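The data are passed on as follows:
___
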Amino acid sequence: MRAITVETNSVGRARSLYNALIDFHPELVGSEDDGYRVSVELGSSESRVLEVLSAIEEHVTEAHSGPARMTVDGRRYTMHAVPSES
């Protein structure tokens, strides 16, 4: 099954991201020693992929907590905050 998984090193960041993705029924797993992962199953809908990525981008931008390191279909990506317009 296709999924987007975001890795974090703190439970606070993981919970914050989990809450931001709550409409997509995320799963949060991990530990202090191994780090935390928040995953969302994507199914076959390309629009769902875009919606989840948009929600992650919005969260990263608003949380000011650094980039999101994620895995999508086995490939690793880093999503940075969107620069604010002056």
Remarks:
- The CA atoms of residues 62 and 81 lie 8 Å apart.
